[in-house]
Amino acid sequence: MDTVTTDLPKLYDEAQDFMPLFGTDYIEFYVSNSKQAAHFYKTAFGFQDLAYSGLETGLTDRESYVLVQDKIRIVLTSPLKSGTDIGKHIDAHGDGVKVVALWVPDATKAYDEAIKRGAKHYMSPVEEKDNYGKVVRSGIYTYGETVHVFVERDEYNGIFLPGYKEWKTTFNTAPVGLQYVDHMVGNVELGEMMTWCNFYKDVLGFAQIVSFDDKDISTEYTALMSKVMSNGNGRIKFPINEPADGKKKSQIEEYLDFYEGPGVQHIAVATDDIIGTVRELQSRGIEFLRVPDNYYDVLLDRVGEIDEDIAPLRELGILVDRDDEGYLLQIFTKPIEPRPTLFFEIIQRKGATSFGKGNFQALFEAIEREQELRGTL
Length: 377
Ligand code: FE2
Fold this sequence. Notes:
- It is a single chain.
- By secondary structure, this protein is of the alpha+beta class.
- The protein folds into two domains: 8-13 and 177-374, 2,3-Dihydroxybiphenyl 1,2-Dioxygenase, domain 1; 23-166, 2,3-Dihydroxybiphenyl 1,2-Dioxygenase, domain 1 (Roll).
- It has helices at residues 34-43, 85-93, 107-116, 193-204, 251-259, 274-283, 299-303, 310-316, 360-374; strands at residues 23-30, 48-53, 62-69, 72-79, 96-103, 121-130, 133-141, 147-156, 165-166, 180-187, 207-212, 224-230, 237-243, 263-270, 319-323, 326-332, 343-350.
- The site of fe (ii) ion has 6 residues, from β10 and β14.
C-alpha cells in the first residue's frame, strides 16, 4: 500500500536512512465489539469491507475486521474470551489504537536497528506465508502500551495479511473521500514530550519539523506543548503532545486520565474535498467540534484569499489556517468512544505543511466547553 505524500525533502536519501519507511501500513484498534465497530466505520466513515480473521479462519481467542478507504486500512480487533492481552488493554484504556503499523522494505532490519538504538521489544520478526506469498512483521513499543509493527510485504499479493480471508457483506456505503493518513498524534505525560521526541529521533531516525510552546496554545484554563516529528521522506508525521500548566485540567490531562496513560489522541485523514467529505460525515451522524460563529467574521482577515466560499465552511464548522507555503482546511470530530480519548481530524492541504496552529485558540475554547459539559474541566 502506498501513502500519498507531498514534496519530499530535497536532501533525503533513502539509501542513507537506517529506517526507511514507505508509509502507514494499517492502524489496529482494540475494541470491545469489533463486529459492531466495523459497521460504524462503514456506515459513518465510509470504509469498505476488506478482510476478516477469527473463528472461521481458525483463531480461537480473537476476531478482526479489516476495512479500507483509498490508502487507509484499519483493523478492528476484539477478544473472544476473558483474560487476553486484548481484553486487558480494552479494560485499561477503553477502545483505542494499539498498533500503528509502518510499511518497511525489511522488517527484520527495521527491528534490529530499532532494538539496537534502545527500542523496547514487542514482537520478534515473524514470517507468515499463505498461497499469496510471504509477509514479515516485527514490532516495538512506543508511548504507553501503543506499538509500532513493521510490515514487509513486497512478496505478498493477498488481500491483507496471511491468516485473513476476504470479507464481503451485503451492506456497503459509499466512501466519503478519506484518502490517506496525514498524521497521528500521541498524548504523553507531563515532562515526557522530549523523551518521546528523542525516541523517534534516536530509534527511528525522525527529525523535528515544527515546534510551538505553551504560550502559543493556551487558554485561561488549558494548555499544551507539542512538537512534530517526521521521518526522512515526510510520509510519517507524529506530533507529540504533553500537558502544560493551566488553571484547570487541560484536555491532554483529561485524555491521560481517561485513557489511563499515554496513547494516540487523534488520527488526521486527508481529503481533497473537505466540504463534500464533512457534509457527508455530518449527514451520517459524525459529530464535530464547533468554534463560535464569529470565527468566520474575521477568517479572511487572518488567512487572506482562499478558493472556498465562506458560507459552506461556516455552515459545516470547517477551520482554515495559513503558513508560509499555503493554507489548510481542517475539522475535528468529538471523541468516537465513551471515554473522551480518541478522535479524528479531517484535513485538506492546499500547500500548507503545518498543523493548524492558528486554530488552536478557538479550538481549545470549544474543547473546554465540552469538558465543562463532562464536568472534567
Ligand atoms: Fe492534527
